[in-house]
Amino acid sequence: MSNPEWLAHDDETGRDLFLLPISAAEAPLRLPEHLRPFVCLLVWDAAAEPVEVVSHVAESLLASGCVYLCVWGDGCSRVHDIFDEVIVGDGSRESIAAAPLVLTTWHDGESLDSALWFFLRSTAPDEAIATECRSGVAVVVGGDPERCAEVYCALKSPGDFSARMAEGSD
Question: Which residue, of 1, 64, 138, 159, has the greatest Cβ tally within 10 A?
Fold first, then answer.
């Protein structure tokens, strides 16, 4: 089981924010049950990753309780599409009806700060599960210390980060 680091409570969304850096996507990725359900920011340069690896990550995050996924990094639209395929399954009415309602977004051509802001301020899970969703988890694949530090700073102080982003948009 993967143990994300708790960084802060976001008063605006009511979510506890966690960071989970992993060295490679092949690493076991099963989040603790107390985080369920959660919104997720997946920071991953996955353009060259095999479909099987991306599918494995999708299955792991979905089984762990992901109800809203934001993907950022090289190949993020492809990762998003593979997640959607995993969610829909074989396309039969039964598989779609059995699938949890999971919203997904990709943030191609955006800065990591923009994706972080979206993750913190615009991820509203489906109404049926929104009140239960009290966790936000950022998963950073690949161990890039610069990216981890950027995500860490945003999640450690989400109010300050959002204020800085708002100032920059004037």
Answer: 138
